[in-house]
Design goal:
It comes from Kribbella qitaiheensis. Keywords: Hydrolase, Membrane, Metalloprotease, Protease, Transmembrane, Transmembrane helix. InterPro entries: PrsW. One of its GO terms (biological process) is proteolysis. Helices cover about 55% and strands about 0% of the residues. The protein is mostly helical. It folds into two domains: about 1-30 and about 340-403, no CATH class; about 50-335, no CATH class. The chain starts with about 50 loop residues before the first helix and ends in a 64-residue tail after the last helix. About 50% of the residues are buried.
Length: about 400
């Protein structure tokens, strides 16, 4: 049988083309119901873990979900009890720690943890702290709750938050990921996206520490009527903001890495991705600032609306990220098929990490479940099974019979 999309020869019983990922059994040409990094999920989904942790989504997604859930619950309880210093610290470091553990779990740094963490997290964090200190302290903005000026929004503050901060902060967040993505061992689309997420959550962590240092150094406040405001702020700053920053930066960094072999560099696609990230950041900063005036200075309703606004933006951003990554994986596989092979799997016998079915030689996708080989850590792509010989061709057989 021939794939109608890339003209590759495929076994008759294949559900998906192992080269381009085309769904051969349905009319869903764009695979909108089968996300390339997690085929049992649609592309238009709000699944957070499979979006920001694509290379671990098929292995143990619940581990990350539980870790994030426990951190969120602990943060809310601490804020409700007035333990603001601890609540801020937990909120600031929760997602970065979970994400670095994810990098370790999938060995994305390929046994080079120090350069990766230093470039994507620590360097970004230091630059974030310096820049945040400059615009929050030196420019006269509130370092407690942005928008706490009871007189109403200030034009200068709004201009800073919707122009200066989004542009400069996004450029800062691009430094580490672009340096890593330009190295041959990290030039994959998924690598660029993941390093962008690391930089984004690292920036958010250090920015939160600087903006709320008065809370950290102010001691325990104890339970009080402001608990709703405290909870809303720590949830926004510690969970919603890092995910927005990380997803937006990851989107731009993925465009820098590009689709095929070797990184694409500073292409128009990267410029578009960078502009999208800046727009999302501007909408987030400006929205939270303006909503902070609803109900008066320090009101709970204003803080809650800020969280709602952030969640809405995050939801839209997740859909955008999934769409870009999905199309990128499919286009990269089609480009690879046009060259006559895969750059991401060997010809040795290997098994799909998701459904455990044997992969056809030089596969970009599993022919059974449609999972993208690029959504699997590089160390596990095309690794031969101990004691097994090379896979035979599929003429007259299916990928499942090669085992």
């Amino acid at each position: 049988m021939e794939c109608p999309r890339c003209s590759s020869a495929v076994p008759e019983v294949s559900h998906f083309c192992h080269h381009c990922g085309n769904d051969l059994q349905t009319q869903d040409a764009g695979r909108k119901k089968a996300y390339a990094a997690r085929p049992d999920e649609p592309v238009a989904s709000f699944k957070l873990v499979s979006t920001i942790m694509p290379q671990g989504a098929g292995r143990q997604p619940y581990t990350y979900k539980v870790a994030l859930g426990v951190a969120l619950l602990l943060t809310v309880v601490l804020a409700a009890l007035g333990a603001l210093p601890v609540a801020i610290m937990v909120a600031a470091f929760a997602i970065p720690i979970v994400y670095i553990l994810y990098l370790y779990d999938v060995n994305l740094w390929e046994d080079e943890p120090i350069p990766v963490v230093a470039a994507a997290f620590l360097l970004t964090g230091v630059l974030a702290a310096v820049f945040t200190w400059l615009w929050s302290d030196k420019l006269g903005l509130s370092s407690d709750t942005i928008g706490s000026n009871s007189a109403g929004p200030a034009g200068r503050d709004l201009l800073i938050l919707m122009l200066l901060v989004p542009v400069v902060s996004e450029l800062v967040r691009q430094i580490g990921p672009l340096y890593l993505a330009s190295r041959p061992r990290y030039d994959d689309l998924m690598d660029g996206f993941t390093f962008g997420v690391v930089a984004g959550v690292g920036y958010a962590c250090f920015e939160t520490l600087v903006l709320h240092w008065s809370w950290i150094s102010g001691g325990f406040a104890g339970p009080g009527s402001s608990a709703g405001t405290w909870i809303s702020i720590v949830v926004l700053q510690g969970f919603v903001k890092p995910l927005i920053y990380g997803s937006a930066t990851g989107l731009a960094a993925a465009e820098f890495s590009g689709l095929g072999e070797k990184y694409d560099g500073f292409t128009p696609r990267w410029v578009v991705g960078l502009a999208q990230a800046m727009v999302v950041n501007a909408l987030f900063q400006g929205g939270v600032y303006l909503l902070g005036f609803v109900g008066g200075h320090g009101s709970t309703i204003g803080a809650i609306l800020g969280v709602v606004w952030g969640v809405v933006l995050l939801g839209a951003l997740i859909i955008l990220v999934r769409t870009v990554l999905h199309k990128g994986l499919l286009e990269a596989a089609l480009e690879s098929a046009a060259r006559g092979g895969s750059n991401h799997a060997s010809g040795e016998l290997a098994f799909c990490s998701r459904c455990e079915m044997p992969l056809l030689p030089h596969s970009d996708f599993c022919s059974a479940c449609g999972n993208s080989v690029r959504s699997v850590p590089k160390a596990e792509r095309g690794v031969a099974v101990q004691g097994s010989g090379p896979a035979a061709g599929f003429e007259g057989s299916t990928g499942e019979t090669q085992a």
